[in-house]
Amino acid sequence: MPRIGVFVCQCGNNIAATVDTKKVAEEMKKLPGVVYTCDYKFMCSSPGQDMLRQAIKENKLDGLIVSACSPHMHEKTFRKAAEAAGLNPYQCEITNIREQCSWVHHDTTKAVGTVKSIDLTRMTIERLKKNRPLKKIKIPVKKRALVIGGGIAGIQAALDIADGGREVILVEKEPSIGGNMARLSETFPTMDCSQCILTPKMVEAELNENITLLTYSEVEKVDGYIGNFTVQIKRKSKFVDEERCTGCGECIEKCPFKTESAFELGLAKRKVIYTPFPQSVPNVPVIDAPNCPKIQKDKCGACAIVCGPKCIDFKMEDKIVTEEVGAIVVATGYQLMPNERFGEYGYGRIKDVISGMQFERLASSSGPTGGEIRRPSDGKVPQNVVFIQCVGSRDEKKGVSYCSKVCCMYTAKHTMLYKHKVHDGQSYVFYMDIRSGGKRYEEFVRKAIEHDDAMYLRGRVSRVYEKDGKVIVQGADTLSGSQVEIEADMVVLATAIVSREGADTLAQKLGIGYDKYKFYNEYHPKLRPVETVTAGIFLAGTCMGPMDIPESVAQGSAAASKVLALFSADEMAREPITAGVNKTTCNACWDCVTACPYSAIERESVKDRQGNIVKWLARVNEGVCQGCGVCVAACRSKSVDLRGYTDEQVFAAINSF
Amino acid sequence: MSVHTEDTVLQKGGFEPKIMAFVCNWCTYAGADLAGTSRMEYRPNVRIIKLPCTGRIDPLFIIKAFENGADGVLVSGCHPGDCHYTTGNYHARRRWIGFKHLMEFTGIDMRRLHFSWVSASEAIKWVDLVNRITDEVKALGPFMEYKGLKEKAAE
Questions:
Q1: What superfamily would CATH give domain A337-498?
Q2: How far apart are the first and last CA of chain B?
C-alpha cells in the first residue's frame, strides 16, 4: 500500500475564500493509500516547506500531493522540497486548485470550489499511485562547437565561443569568410566603412587558436543529439594546398583567363584562380574548376609554373571530414531575391538598373570602380539616380509579404553616399513607408532628406524604360497626388532579403524547423530567440529573417553564450519525461519513427550469437526525445510509453473521475 | 466513481454535466491558468487532465472518459503551427478526423465531444468554450449510453 501525504494550501485567502481546504484535506484522508493530510496557509513559504519535509520523514511518505497553485508556478519548489526529504522528486504531484478552481469559481459559500477541489485532488492521488520514481537524464557533452556560416553573425559566435576557451569549427561555403557584410561599402547609421570594422574580426577568427576555419566547405550530414553531434563536412577542392600557400598572389597575376566575379555581382571580372576580394580570409586562392582550361582540357597551367611553394595540385579532390561536436550554431545568412522577377523595373534588360548590393560595390573603395559612382552601361557619373524601395518586400503577389527591414536604412545611406561623391547629383527615393526604428536610425533618414537633399516620393513606380541613353522612371507621388516622370541615369532597386538557396536542405539535415519563406524558426520568438526546437542547435543572424548588423552580432553573441552555458558542465541534466519502448511487444512497424517530430526514435537490430539479425526494435534516444508523447498515441501495439505521462497514470486519473 | 443515474439527476433538481478536458501543457493549460490569474469566471463542471501535447492523446482516453461518467469531453491544444513540439497538434488533428466516425460508431453523440485550439493568451476563448460546451451538454442531458457497461463487463 502506498503512503501518500496530501497538503492542501490555503494560499492566504486566494484558495481559502472559495474552497474549504480543511474539508478537502479531511475527505482525502478517507481514500485508500492516503496516510497524512493537512491544510496550511502558505505551503510555498519556508515554514510550509519545513512542515512538508517533516511530514514526509515522520509519516514515511512515499508520495506527495500538494493541492495549491498551478504546477507551472511551484512544481519545482515542492519537488525540490520532497527531494530534500529523501523522496524521489517525481513522486510529488501538484493539483491545480487555484488558477483552475478557486480563482475562476467565485462562489463564496465554498460549495462549488470544494467539490471541484476534492475531485481534482482525488484524480491526482490516483495518478500518483501509478507514478514511478524517475531520475534526471545525464548526457555527456563534447565541448566543441560547430558554427555554420562565416558571415558577421557566425564570426561573432565563433569568436565568443573561442574566447570562452572552447574549440570551434567555423564552416564557410565560400573561399573566404566575411559573408554579405564584406560587400558593403559603409554601414548605417555611423557610416563606418564595412571592411574597416569587419576585416579585423575576420583576421581575429583566423588567428584564434581555438578556431578552425573550414572555408570552401559545406555540411553534408548531421547525426546525433545535443552534446554529441557527428557532422560530416565536405571540403570542396581548392586545388591549392592551404598549408603551404603563402598568399603571394603570383598565380592570380599570371592566370590568363577571366570570368564573372560572383562577389562583385556581375560588375567586374575576376581571374579563374582567385580570392573573392583582396582582404579574403584565409588569403588562399582557389581555382574555379568549371572555368579552368587546365582542369577541363589540360591546357595552360600557368599558375602552377609561377607558384613558388609549389602548392597547386590540379588533381586535388573533394574530401569529407568528420567532426564531433556538442553544439551547433547555424548562421547561414541571406541572399537577395532575383530582381528579374520584376520586369516593370527593367532589371537585367536595362544595364543601368542595378540592385542595392551592386550599388554597395560601386560605392566601395575596394569595388570595381574604386569607390566612384559610375553607371555600368557607359561608365558615366550619373546625375540623377532613382532609388526604388520595397522591390519584392511587402508584396504578397509578386514577392514576399514581410518587410526586409534594412532597405529603408540602406537606401537613405545610398543617397548620402551618392551625394558625398557626386555633389551636384540628385537622388530620388520612391518609398511606401519609411521604417527607421532603431537607435539613431530616424535621425539618419532625416539627415539624408534634409542635409543631403534626397527627394523622397511616397508612391510606387509603374514602369522603367530606356530612352536616348536615359532611364525613364514613371511613378506616382501619392502625397501630391500627381504622376511623376524622372529622366534618370541610373536606377537602384532595394531588393527583398530572402533565405539562402538550399536553406531548406540544410534545415532537413539538422532537423530544425523553417517557415514558408525558408527562414529558420526559433524556439520561441520572444523568450528563446536563438534556440531551435532541436536541443543543442542554435541560430544567429539573417537565417532567421531580415535583420541588420547590430542585431546579427547580438544574436551571434547570444548563441555563443548559450553554447558556453551548455559546455559549462561535463554532463547535462535533462527532465526524465521521455518515451521508452517495451522491447517484448514492439513489432517494428515504425509508426513511431514517422510520427516523431525530433527523429528521436532509432531502428535497433537484435542479433543472435552468430551475429545474424533476428529482430528489429524501436529505440528512443533520450538525448533527443523531448517528451511530447506523439509516438505513444501512434503505437499500435502499445509498446511505447511516456515517462511521467504513462497510459497507466492517465487512465488512473480518468477512472477516478 | 460518481456515475449519474436517472435518480441522482432528479434528486439534484437540475442536471450538472461532468466535462473532462484533455489539454496540452503549453497552450491550453496555460490559457486556463491565465483565466484564473485574470479572475474570470466559468462553469465549474470541467475537470482538466494535463498532457504534454494533444498528440499524446490516445482516442481510448476519450472513450474511457465517457465510460467513467463524463457527459462531455473537450480536447484542446496549441493552434496549428504553434505546437511546442512543432507538429504534435497536427497528429492530434489527423487522429481526430480519423476517429470521429469511429467514436460515433461506438455510440457517442458527437455533440458531446469538442476539439478546439486555445493558446496561452486566449483565456477568454477558454472561458467561452467551457461555458458553451457545458450548456450544450446540459441541454443534451446525461450520457446514459455507457451506463452499467463496466459492471456488465465485470460480470
A1: FAD/NAD(P)-binding domain (3.50.50.60)
A2: 18
CA A407 to chain centre: 22
Answer yes or no: do A630 and B84 touch at CB < 8 A: no
Residue contact B48–A100, C-beta within 8 A: yes
Low-confidence ranges of chain B (pLDDT < 50): 1-11
Instruction: Determine which helix (DSSP H) or strand (DSSP E) holds A429, and give its type and residue range.
Output: strand A426-431
Structure-block grid coordinates of residue A529: 530567440
Cα A409 from chain centroid (whole Å): 24
Closest residue of chain A to B16, computed from CA coordinates: A112
Q: How many Å apart are CA A236 and CA B127, to the nearest integer?
A: 59
DSSP secondary structure string for all residues of A568-626: TSSEEEE----EEE-TTT-----HHHHH-TT--EEEEEEE-TTS-EEEEEEEE-TTT--
**In B, which residues are within 8 Å of A641 by CB distance?**
none
Longest dimension (CA), chain B: 49
pLDDT digits (tens, 9 = 90+) for A341-390: 888 999 989 999 999 999 999 999 999 999 999 999 999 999 999 999 99
Write the residue in A123, A628, A650 that is nearest to B85 by C-beta: A628
- Provide CATH code, domain B17-154: 3.40.50
Q: Do A628 and B56 touch (CB under 8 A)?
A: yes
DSSP structure class, residue A24? H
- What part of A 306-325 touches B (C-beta under 8 Å)? none
* ipTM metric: 0.91
Is the overall model pTM greater than 0.80, yes or no? no
- Contact between residue A42 and residue A21 where contact means Cβ atoms under 8 Å apart: no
Query: What tens digit of pLDDT does each residue of A95-121 get?
Result: 999 999 999 999 999 999 999 999 999
Q: Please choose, from the candidates A611, A613, A626, A620, the residue with its C-alpha nearest in 3D space to the C-alpha of residue A583.
A: A620
**What residue of B is the nearest CA neighbor of A656?**
B1
- B90–A contact, CB cutoff 8 A: no
Q: What is the CATH code for A4-129?
A: 3.40.50
Which of B47, B50, B84 lies closest to A657 in CB terms? B47
